[in-house]
Amino acid sequence: MSAVTQPLVPVLALILAGFLLQRTNFLAPAFWPSAEKLTYFLLMPAMLIHNLAGKKIGDLPWLKILVTVEGGILLSAVLVLLWWASNRDLDGPAFTSLFQGGVRFNTFVALALAENLYGADGLFVAALGAGFMILLINVLCVTAFSLTVTGGARPTPGKIALDLLRNPLIIGCAVGVGLNATGLKLPVALDGILSLSGRAAFPLGLLAVGAAYRAGNLVQHRKTLVVSSVIQFVIKPAAAWWLATVLGLTGMAVCVAILLFSVPTAPTAYILSRQMGGDHESMASIITVQTCLSFLTLPVTLWLMQGLPHG
């Protein structure tokens, strides 16, 4: 199981480091908001452009992969909305944490696992699926914030469109996908700058998550923790398997699709929550708890996947 747990260790280690740095006041309190802003507006978009611009689809069953991952994301979003409709005691900011906790996925963990388990081919398929997912997820999440975190003002289509158009994560996805579709290549120097900048996105984001984490919040946010985790670790992997089977995906592509839907939610969710007025404390708790839970759920998921033909 070392291939399963190994990619999770640095994630938890950085969250713990951020928690300790904040608690010991090793860094000035003003550092953390600045770190969040830098990650959100610069480092994450750089990482998205670099990762999405250079992928080559080739002979992969990209349409089946596309429908599988997008269908799974839309299903999880609908389930969160249906649950919220029957539990309206949850306010808008708390709902956005539930939404992101049930819809987003940790790209770092998913890609690292795919490479460890299935080699370069697995990494390529996972990167393709992740590229399809990232833009839709960010559109859905930004729309959820625009509709529910309004400060008392009724959201308008213009406001929602403006939030989408100026969101740096969506801009990063759009630029990366656009470069890929047109076949344009980034200059080597610029691509190197984006690659180097993007490498700092996850470490800095995870440190910020740890700095915001409060153990006492677990009981307070237990409802969103339980619901988002059930969707993330039970419903989404099952939905990915069902969609992949119905669409006729075979071999390693099925396993990678399930893997993309079996990892914890993304640290990016916390950055977005801070920047768009969500319940960031609830979001930090969900990210940390789901990352811890994945040490138990991922080995179980992979054990169940052993019965699938890898082709």
UniProtKB/TrEMBL annotation:
It holds the Pfam family Mem_trans. It is found in: Cell membrane. Its main location: membrane. The chain crosses the membrane at residues 65-85, 123-149, 169-190, 196-213, 250-272, 284-305. One of its GO terms (biological process) is transmembrane transport. Belongs to the auxin efflux carrier (TC 2.A.69) family. It is a multi-pass membrane protein. The keyword Transport applies. GO terms for cellular component: plasma membrane. InterPro entries: Mem_transp_PIN-like (IPR004776), Na+/solute_symporter_sf (IPR038770). Keywords: Cell membrane, Membrane, Transmembrane, Transmembrane helix, Transport. PANTHER family: AUXIN EFFLUX CARRIER FAMILY PROTEIN. It comes from the Bacteria. This is AEC family transporter. Gene3D superfamilies: 1.20.1530.20.
